[in-house]
Amino acid sequence: MNAVEVLVVGAGPTGLTMAGELAAFGVRVRVVDRALDRVHESRALGVQPRTLEVLAGLGVTDDLVACGNTAVRLCLHAGGREREVRLFDLGLPDTACPCLLFLSQAETERILGEHLAAAGVDVERGVELVGLTRTADDAVATLRHRDGREEHVSASYVVGCDGAHSRVRHLAGIGFEGASYPQTFVLADLEADGVAGGATHVFLSGRGMLFLFPLRRPAGWRALAMRPPADAPPAGSAVTLHEVQTLADTYTGGTVRLRDPVWMTNFRLHHRAATRYRAGRAFLAGDAAHIHSPAGAQGMNTGIQDAVNLGWKLAQVLRDGADPALLDTYETERAPVGRMVLRFTDRAFTVATSTNPLIRFARTRVAPALLPAALAPGFVRAAAFRTVSQLGISYRRSPLSTDGPHGPRSGPRAGDRLPDVPLPDGGSLHRLTSARGWHLLLCGPPTARSTVEAAALARRYPARLTVHRLAAPGAAAALRRLGVRPGASGLFLVRPDGHIGYRAGGDDLTPLLPYLGRWLPS
Questions:
Q1: For residue 351, what is the DSSP state?
Q2: Across the chain, which distance is largest between two alpha carbons, in Å?
Q3: Cβ(278)–Cβ(324) under 8 Å?
């Protein structure tokens, strides 16, 4: 029987990220996928700022941005009029990625796959999970190869990143609760004439909306539209360009011409969530744990962040001997995020598709007239975008989040994402804490006690805990953003995924020791 530390089932963006995280920590990982090739269609196409931040640790963010389209305009079309709404030109001060990146899932998978291959991990395609037996000590997976050969693999843990029809979820006996939306949609990658480039176009009508999203590859545009209720062909059935053009004409009044399709399909949407994210040594991430409408470009991003959250925890248990209870915090932290995304996307989907006369009136008359003015103030756009961008995700109620004594009255709390702030050397807080492992930020004037205690911690946790000193005047901006007043001191322990695990005021590191002893054993 072959043995591996972690078996990742599914090689979409979530599975590739999971494997990349594990490999970066030195974990022996295998990735299998029953598909013979990666996707070559656009599919998920919005990469949120928080996702770009967490992928920076893999060194792929610059490549993603270079291949994508950072469109900053939203054009609303209704009643023969066009109104422009600026959403993404916010200059958010706490992130180096203040934009929604439009990028085909095919390109996202290509870049993540190339990174994984460079790390020495190959995706094994045409390999299907057909059996899973879990014990207290391991999980035994039965894999069927494309030639019919079956292989038994013993893994410390199995992670199901295998989508809505997850075989891992089924074999682990985890429920998947929810329902299907009644509408049928058309999705197409193609070229479009009659719309300005560099913008997302939304055509509003009483029957719903037509979206045109700007791409670069595999085509210039992604079209998404709802079919009439009486026209409901089976999901996945063949679609013709004539059908898509006829559908587009009903939304655009014939002002947009579609051509040169690369890919077209009918599909149905679902909103479902796994009843739990873990069953013993089997975990779920991404679409295997939650599926919902594409409203707000949340799905792939939530899955990638699931993978980053679980990846470092598995690595710490396997490589550093951390308490396995650390793995329980995965569901504690990510399941509420999944539920929040389902609520958000369901409400947005209802507004976009409802035939209720009041909602139709608001969608076609009120929203086009009021939305540009309502979003004109920068602080309003920033608040809305921060929610959609997932920069506001926090784990304050997690067992991993501890606010120590005399913490700052303002600034991020334990469980919050560490904000990014420029530093005088040309770097930033995120670059400072980008190396794998935990990071301790000592804020304020150095003292003899804190210097000695910090040196002792660095010796106790070599290559696992890095200590940094932030002091004025050079780090004054960072100290203000962290809530540390001039002349005061404080400390922030940053987790490997960029969230704050522990924070406290003063320069005494003694209260931090029980936290480290619990979650970062020496």
A1: H
A2: 76
A3: no
